[in-house]
Amino acid sequence: MRLERRTEAERRMEADRAHGGPAPTEPALALAGVTKAYRRGAQPVLCRVDLVLRPGEWAFLTGPSGAGKSTVLKLFYGAVRPDEGTVRVLGMDVARVPPHRVRRHMGLVFQSFELLPQKTVLENVAYGAEILGFPPREAAAAARRMLAAVGLEGLAGRFPWELSGGEQQRVGIARALIHRPPIVLADEPTGNLDVDTARRVFEIFRAVHQEWQPTMLIATHSRDLLEWAEARVIRVEGGRLTEDTAASRRGAGKEAALP
Ligand SMILES: Nc1ncnc2c1ncn2[C@@H]1O[C@H](COP(=O)(O)OP(=O)(O)O)[C@@H](O)[C@H]1O
Ligand SMILES: [Mg+2]
After folding, report:
1. How many domains does the chain have?
2. Stated pTM of the model
3. Is residue 150 a contact partner of residue 204, using CB atoms and an 8 Å limit?
4. Which ligand is closest to the CA of 39, given by its number?
5. Which one, 77, 123, 144, 213, has least CB within 10 Å?
């Protein structure tokens, strides 16, 4: 995959980033002493957790269903507020900055593709840029480049219902990452896909990471994804975050492969 050079609008966003507060020397993503309970008095989903991802780092969040993986991502993109502690994105305290200021530096990819059914593939991808203020012609040009990057240039005129699940997810990724964001958050991005299609989506994430080195945090319970990437793995369980070492992960993978 070859992602092409940035447009004027993308350069403007970078300049804005330079003047808008985010400090490049800060951790890209950080939780400090974060506690979150959805109901008062209930057992917290996260209990005084700390986490730091450096700029350009690629990490996975794993753990059982209901452990709090989505909650960690939601804290970063501002859909959930912590009861205690601080959440920082590119040095910005998300409690003190309007959500749109934080989110313009992010690409968000979800399990359900959430494409707009009345728009074509090209329009869906361009929309990701239009809502960030790209002029329509630049948005369309960026959308074409991004569709080529995910191998879907031939499907630009189709509607979402004319695509397979894997193709829909690639459109979702193209839309989410059209502005080459420095932060990529993905919540079970291959959760609805078979293993071959998941592999294809994974290769797109890898190409994206090589291309502009965003900080990427991907929540998944797919062992395949963890094995393919050999990246840092953070486990969410019992209100805590723990690091999985590569060695123990390979062991766990082998165990799971036994009959
Ligand atoms: N909006 C909410 N209100 C109440 N409970 C919630 C809400 N969102 C998530 N939870 C609960 O918090 C826990 C963690 O959820 P989540 O972060 O979605 O876990 P995961 O993504 O690891 O499956 C679960 O027990 C879930 O039921
Ligand atoms: Mg989840």
Report:
1. 1
2. 0.86
3. yes
4. 1
5. 213
